[in-house]
Structures are given as structure tokens and as C-alpha cells.
Design brief:
The chain is 30% helix and 18% strand. By secondary structure, it is an alpha/beta fold. The model has no long low-confidence stretch (mean pLDDT 93).
Length: 236
Amino acid sequence: MYNNKKILALIPARGGSKGLPGKNIKLIAGKPLLHWTIEAAKQCSWLDKIVVSTEDQRIATAAREAGAEVPFLRPQELAGDTVSGMDVVIHAIEWFENKGQHFDLLILLQPTSPLRTSVDIENAIKLLFERQAKAVISVCENEHPPYWSNILPDDLSMKNFIDHSALKNRQDLPVFYRLNGAIYLSDIDYLKKQRGFWGDDTYAYIMPRERSVDIDSLLDFKLAEILLREQQNSEG
């Protein structure tokens, strides 16, 4: 609880993954990927309940081993590739409400962001109150200016690929940010009304790039493991 607001931490972790099969319980830096997010959440005393939403018994077992709750198994119809993440969030909220358990805030913590820390979670919560916001979404600085990107035609011509006036020194260009997938925090009433985290009262929590790896491929996984190992070595 923070400022008299009860906070539900929801960690969505389905069993299917085409990009990297079994990634949520794949060992990374010595422990299942899922465990890194659960441990970060447990280190934040403001979270009243830490719940993993999954349809997979193996993931459920791994989640409980790390200290998270798995009070339900997600219906199979909410575990496919095309299922909206918001449907998973609403399902969890309604499950608790049907049990007479109500929360004021929900923080969505995706297990594919293992470098996010308890400090990031706490700072996002603080920001929500400091800005009198209804929602906070984590971002990080873009690795490359979007001015340097474009689609390519079938013949691969670069004739109109970029506006040449954008070919400046990087430091002369404005800073762009991207979603990093690590933290989605919202007032639950706002979440229901908007049917999402986005709206006029949503603000950005800026994270450093080194804590913003979002694992979607084997390359992402290898990069995250290197950074986690470095973190372990510095702490040891």
C-alpha cells in the first residue's frame, strides 16, 4: 500500500512463445526468467499482492517457487498469440472483484523485462502521485533517431529513404523515447474507463537503456543475460 492505495502487481506469463519457446521459465543468469520480475516486485513493500496470470502449470509452479501467488489459471482463450493484453488484465481484476477483493492501482510487470528493479517500480509509483496522474508507462531513450529510419520499397531503392536535412550530428537532434515494456501502472477505475493505460492523464517514467531490454528474441535473451551477469558480479 502507498498513500492509502492498495496495489495489485500482475505478471502475465503465458506458456506459448513463437519467438523464443518457453522463454518465461528459460534459465537466464542462473534462474528462470520469470523469477527476476517476481523478485524485483517482492523487494517493493508497497505492493499488496503479487500475482502471476498464466495458463501453464509449469509456469505456475515456477511462480510459486519464487514467492508469487497464482490464485487462478488463465482460461485457454486468453492464452493465444492474438489475445489482447488488456483482456488478461481485466480478467484478473474481475476475478479478484468477484472474490470481494478490490485494489486501487494495478501495476503490470512483464517477465520479459528482467533488468527492471524494485527502485524502478517504486519510482513509477511515486511519479504517479507526484504528477497526480492516473497512469504511468515506462519508456527509455531511442537507440537511434527515427529520422534515420524508413520502410524500403520492393526494389530496395533508397531514393527517398530519408530527409537529408536530418543527416546531422546525433547531439543536434531532439531526443526520442520508446516504450520499453517494463512498467504499466494505472488507477484501476481509469484503466477500466480507458480500456487501457493510455489517456490524457498518462505520464512517462524514463528508465535507462541498460535496464530496458525487452526479451523477444534469442539476441535479446543473450544481451539480457550478459547484463544480468554483470549485475550479479558487481553485487558479489
